[in-house]
Design goal:
The complex is a heterodimer of chains A (528) and B (213). Chain A has 528 residues and is an alpha/beta fold. Chain A is built from 25 helices and 12 strands. Chain A is globular. With 213 residues, chain B is of the alpha/beta class. Classes of the chains: A alpha/beta (528), B alpha/beta (213). β9 of chain A pairs antiparallel with β9 of chain B. Bound molecules: iron/sulfur cluster.
């Protein structure tokens, strides 16, 4: 898929004012978050399972060469074939060649994120194949010619009316000439239209939630049964999967299955969990005659070697985006490529480079919700921070931001200067904003205050509160200590005011700048 | 010239070489033979009650009868109640059942022209409320997905507690079949405005009949 990630800021700015999108995202996030919380509540072992998931993931990654070879051998043993693709183009060519060899005309697809990543549909269509997505959400987007905006609910941003319009335009020529307005009718029409597509297809392409080294099976998890039909009816089944999908045994797979649906949709188990192993057996009346697996690297070995290895534990559940306030405000399309939300903000800059997609890593408040729900315990905020560090080092960050960071860094390393300066800045701003309790506009940060007010600081600085709390257990000294702190702070304040009067102006501006900067650290960067 | 396979594996090996702390090849082989003990959620109470509860949570329906002989009548009554024609496509594994006069019966797989299928199960999982079906000439996979109504017959003894118990039974077969389906309810989708709709591409009804004897 072509990337638009470089346009992230503008796309996000457009998205935040899109009322319809806002409504759709709020509804979806509420639903997902609530259902997940409920289902997690009823499973006391959930936290242990997350820890275990991480352990399994790390073990596989640390021994990936072994498990890939074991997996390959098991596929071959059951009559399947394994193909290795280093890049997107390799993957496209492999699938295209198989289709050509078996003289395929029609392809039916189950949902597969890796096939989006390697732009498989475009490649197959350009060589004359008729490709149909069978997951309802993906089908809707195929008609709309749009990429998915969520990894498990791809058409989350589409309204019923928009879907009805798409169906009307696409299905009219098939004899469906009524514009529909109910969900059951829409689902039914898609069911009828797609039914013949399954039966006519020569090749079925699915993804894989897991690849099992023990048996050479791939597992797919669906609610619609679409992937299951796609791998049962056509005469050839091709699985596209990235190399990090392999797990050692069936037991490991079930350990991760317990996490997947709960984290994704808040279900305990989806309607269908299907293991496919090789082509149909001699006596089987249905099932494919050929079974192929395309193992895709496309940048993952590089990830394995570097600081982003932990990201390869991802099981693509979507919980991180369901719980992300930034995703909730801007939707999936703003991210400009295949993977949105926190996991996308880690993956996309890695795959496409910081120049193209570095902004994704900056659009994060580091609130940590994603990491706290990730079933594989991926430290997403830490990984995003890694991207920021690289950006800073490579001088890719905007000049003002780099300058502000350097300035802040200088002060932060000098607590004697930092503490009175923040205290002073807060007092001054607190005084200035006392009447309204907030600032409607401020010099130099217009782009920030254009869209929201800055609350006037109240009370003590964070440092003081923290110091107070830290000394709390020392009961007898507590009162003294706090008073002492107050006294010394007053002395510093007096000193600064009287002795440094001539440069007070400079300090004021500095303190103000620092405060604004710190506030942005907490509240996120200004939008454009 | 090296192949893509070799190049990928070399890169993987290089990437993991330094940090391989999970021991030797022998230990890995050992782990393949016997996975380390994994956490299984504690199940409370009766297995069959649990299976029923979880199945119904996933929008499946459940019915119990005492002996295998009752199955044809139960199937017929179920279809009658739901206003479905008494015409069933039956998995060849159930060929020996006395289906009787009321039901119109044929055996084999389907290409979509059979509204009702009746299939056996390999086992059922109390933990998840799933029935597990294996592909074979006796139980074609197409019967699990193309009909509108899918009826699954399970014996009480086939109900196991956890997913891992299915693996044990599967390994005991010696050879894994082409397709293993865990089915935990009818086909459904929430892709239109997050509204749950039953009957996306597969069966609109999943009905499990458990033989209690
Ligand atoms: S990063 Fe974690 S939460 Fe996000 S999709 Fe991957 S596994 Fe799920």
């Amino acid at each position: 898929m072509e990337s638009h990630s470089h346009d992230f800021k503008r796309a996000a700015a457009r998205a935040v004012v899109d009322e319809q999108l806002k409504g759709a995202l709020a509804k979806a996030q509420d639903g997902f978050v609530g259902k997940r919380a409920q289902v997690v509540e009823t499973l006391p072992e959930f936290e242990q399972l997350r820890e275990q998931g991480k352990t399994i993931g790390d073990h596989v990654l640390a021994n990936l060469d072994y498990y890939l070879e074991r997996y390959e051998a098991a596929v071959v043993k059951h009559g399947g074939q394994v193909h290795w693709a280093e890049t997107s183009e390799d993957a496209q060519n492999i699938v295209r060649d198989i289709c050509k060899r078996v003289d395929a005309k029609r392809v039916i697809k189950g949902k597969s994120m890796i096939s989006e990543e390697v732009a498989l549909n475009e490649a197959l269509e350009s060589s004359g194949l008729d490709v149909v997505e069978s997951d309802l959400g993906e089908y809707i987007l195929q008609l709309a010619k749009e990429p998915p905006s969520h990894i498990i609910a791809p058409a989350i941003h589409k309204t019923k009316a928009q879907i009805a319009e798409l169906f009307y335009n696409a299905h009219r020529k098939l004899g469906y000439d009524k514009k529909l307005d109910s969900v059951p009718d829409l689902v039914n029409e898609a069911r009828e239209v797609l039914r013949s597509r399954y039966l006519e297809a020569d090749v079925g392409i699915t993804g894989a939630n897991f690849l099992i080294a023990e048996t050479g099976s791939n597992i797919i998890v669906t609610n619609e049964g679409n992937g299951d039909l796609s791998c049962t009816l056509p005469r050839v089944h091709i699985v596209t999967a990235s190399i990090d999908k392999v797990v050692p045994t069936l037991d490991d797979a079930s350990a991760l299955l317990r996490l997947l649906a709960r984290s994704a949709t808040g279900q305990e188990f989806t309607s269908y969990t299907t293991l496919s192993t090789g082509p149909r057996r001699a006596a089987d009346p249905d099932g494919p005659e050929e079974y192929h697996v395309v193992l895709v690297d496309n940048g993952r070995t590089e990830m394995l070697a570097g600081e982003f290895r932990e990201m390869l534990r991802c099981i693509r559940c979507g919980a991180c985006m369901n719980h992300c306030p930034v995703y909730g405000a801007i939707g999936g399309h703003s991210y400009g490529w295949v993977y949105p939300g926190p996991m996308g903000s880690v993956l996309t800059p890695h795959f496409l480079g910081l120049k193209e997609a570095g902004d994704l890593a900056n659009a994060c408040t580091l609130n940590g919700r994603c990491a706290s729900v990730c079933p594989m315990k991926i430290p997403l905020p830490d990984l995003l921070r890694e991207h920021r560090r690289h950006q800073f080092e490579a001088k890719l960050a905007p000049r003002m931001a780099s300058f502000a960071l350097a300035y802040w860094g200088f002060l932060a390393k000098r607590p004697k200067l930092y503490q009175p300066l923040t205290a002073l800045g807060m007092r001054v701003m607190g005084m200035l904003g006392r009447r309204k309790g907030r600032f409607r506009s401020l010099p130099m940060v217009g782009s920030w205050t254009d869209t929201r007010d800055l609350p006037a600081p109240q009370g003590k600085t964070f440092y003081k509160v923290w110091r107070k709390q830290r000394t709390l257990p020392v009961e007898t000294k507590m009162g003294n200590k706090v008073d002492q702190g107050k006294g010394s702070e007053l002395r510093v304040f007096a000193f600064l005011t009287i002795v440094l009067a001539p440069i007070l102006a400079v300090v004021l501006v500095g303190g103000y700048g620092l405060l604004v900067w710190m506030f942005q650290l907490i509240a996120g960067p200004p939008t454009q | 010239m090296s192949t893509a396979r070799e190049r990928i594996l070399v890169r993987v090996r290089d990437a993991v070489a330094g940090g391989r702390k999970d021991g030797s090849r022998a230990e890995l082989e050992q782990r393949m033979e016997q996975a380390p003990p994994l956490i299984r959620p504690k199940l409370h109470g009766d297995l069959i009650a649990r299976f029923r509860e979880k199945l119904m949570q996933g929008s499946g329906t459940f019915e119990q009868c005492d002996t295998p002989d009752e199955v044809p009548a139960v199937v017929f009554a179920y279809l009658q109640t739901n206003g479905v024609a008494a015409k069933i496509r039956v998995a060849p594994a159930l060929q020996d059942a006395a289906w009787g006069e009321e039901l119109e019966v044929s055996y084999g797989n389907t290409r979509g022209d059979h509204p009702v299928s009746v299939t056996p199960a390999f086992c059922a999982v109390a933990e998840t409320g799933s029935v597990v079906l294996l592909s074979s000439d006796k139980s074609p996979t197409s019967l699990n997905f193309l009909p509108d109504v899918h009826i699954v017959i399970v014996d009480k003894d086939q109900v196991v507690s956890h997913i891992e118990d299915v693996w044990v039974k599967l390994r005991a077969l010696g050879e894994i079949p082409r397709t293993v389906n865990f089915i935990t309810g009818p086909s459904k989708t929430a892709d239109v405005e997050q509204t749950l709709q039953i009957g996306a591409h597969g069966p609109r009804d999943l009905h499990v009949i458990l033989i209690a004897s």
